[in-house]
Amino acid sequence: MFSERVGYIVWVSDLKAARSLDKYGTVHYMSRKMHYVVMYMNADRADEIVRNIQRFSFVKKVERSYRNEIKTEYSSNEPDKSRFYSL
């Protein structure tokens, strides 16, 4: 149903020109202060799209986002001590 998506951080020198990155994937966030764009694209065409994006003169560097690979479910083996410190 949904295709696998992968995130990329694109460091740019010109934010006005970076608006054209919307053709290559979904632009999630553009940082005006630090000059980067967070975008998501289909994983099956990601390598081809990254090669095309790197050819632009306003693109400094393209990095893969590993946010979806970070473990977000935590388990605590220690009991909750907060109830012992109540007044």
From TrEMBL:
Keywords: Cytoplasm
Protein name: YlbG family protein
Pfam families linked: DUF2129 (PF09902)
Keyword Cytoplasm (UniProt): yes
Highest taxon of source: Bacteria
